[in-house]
Amino acid sequence: MGSACCGRNYEGNERMLLKRKRGSSEDISTLLSPPPELTKNYIGLPNRFEHQGSASICVGLAGIENLGNTCYISSALQCILNTQPLIDYFLAGVHEDEINPKFSGELTRSFVELAKAQWLSEYESIVPRYLINLVWETAAQFEAGKQNDCHEFLSYFLDQIHEELNRVARPGTPSVIENNGEKDERQAAKAWHEYLSYNCSVIVDLFQGQLKSTLKCSECGFISATFDVFMYLSVPIAKKSCTLEDCLLEFTKEEILDGPEKWFCPCCNQKCKATKKFDLWKLPPVLIIHLKRFKYNKCEISKLESFVKYPTANLNLTKYILSNQKEPPNYDLFGTINHSGTNQNGHYTATCKNKHDQKWYHYDDEKTKRVNLEETVTRNAYVLFYFKNSIDQFFTQSSRLPEYWPHILSKDITVNNTENDEQRSSGLATDFPNQTAELGSFNTIDNPFDNNI
Ligand SMILES: [Zn+2]
To answer: Which CATH class is domain 31-453?
Structure first.
């Protein structure tokens, strides 16, 4: 640990060290707007990305000290710390009622400590040493002192938080819902139901959407379509200089599988030439887009330095989505993770819009500085964070509440409630009795679907 961390300007304990901002008052609690009232059976998390707080305090601006090649951790954490509905959820303390009994909840709790330091006090910088040690100790891929991929860490971190907060008491693996001639939207809803039967958490509510993946046999024309859940879109970089839209078009472009990549067609019962295509089906409230800058070729990693131009407001994704959306898929940028330098010797930073004062800041380890809107679009952008600006609240996703799913279904469509579902439902009922009592009027046999098809 660097000497700066042990200086006398720091307060705190072995879990976290804190350096108070010069001139900051001891108690700013009266100046802070309280988090929205949320309890564990919340129906929606309010969209307050554009809600402004008191001008006389500056919160959310603490840097995170580098503990030796930890910029990939701090940059990802800064973007998560600026994800307003998630932070409201944590500051309201809902996680304490939702930690899955299978887990200790250590990672979640240490992140909440960091979130409280960031948003309830005016600190200049923070050393979240317990949290970082926990990552080093529990995830072998993030060895102490080594450089790592920030997107890999982000994905690991959100997965872990999801596991710790999974409302399903007995998580398992959802089965693949095969297409059997049904309408796509119905098949997608079934796949979502199947997924939610094993995965329900604030992470699912906010960050997860659905992709359609289609394989078509070039010999017999057989089509296999499945609906997969995604937490981020990993898009290829289209050309040397391009736009985010070009990258999304590239992502949804049909790919030919031939030679060693041939697909085993269940209809021809042999390996056949085929086409493969991804389509966006349902987009989540918080959309994470990963620009595939790093190319992995056997033992070499190379970096694409291309400038990708992306909008900071009103990214409209209608033309890239195959299905109708309940609300317009309009997104505003609120964070970027940036990578400068080479793949061998690089550095990560984050640029985020502060939910308290609505201004943009650049986080570079322990240093934070104000930046203009124009400075948020750079050739270093690696991961982009957008929020949906067309909705007032982000609804909870539960297998029992299909009316809050992103799917548009007619009333006569019901999601099959198999015996297995009933067993799982009763498992949920035992583990979450309050939730079941409150949500009892909706069950999966008679769903109050919208009548829009
Ligand atoms: Zn075939």
So the answer is: alpha beta
Ligand 1: centre distance to CA 273 (Å):
8
- Consecutive 10-residue runs of the chain (453 residues): their mean pLDDT? 55 91 81 88 95 89 95 97 97 97 96 97 95 95 91 97 94 83 90 96 98 96 95 95 96 96 96 97 98 87 94 96 94 98 90 96 97 97 98 96 89 44 33 29 33 31
* CA separation for the pair 394, 44 (Å, rounded): 5
Who's near 376: CB < 8 A, 6+ residues apart? 312, 333, 336, 351, 360
- Active-site positions? 71, 347
The residues near 437 (Cβ < 8 Å, ≥ 6 apart) are none
Model confidence pLDDT, tens digit, residues 304-341:
999 999 999 999 999 999 999 999 999 999 999 999 99
Q: Which residues pair with 110 in a beta bridge?
A: none
Q: Which residues of 357-385 are buried (b: 16+ CB within 10 A; e: fewer)?
A: beebbbbbbbebeeeeeeebbbebbbbbb
For tokens 């809600």, what's the residue? 51
Ligand 1 ion local residues (Cβ < 5 A): 217, 219-220, 222, 265, 267-268, 272
Query: Residues near 133 by Cβ (< 8 Å), separated by ≥ 6?
Result: none
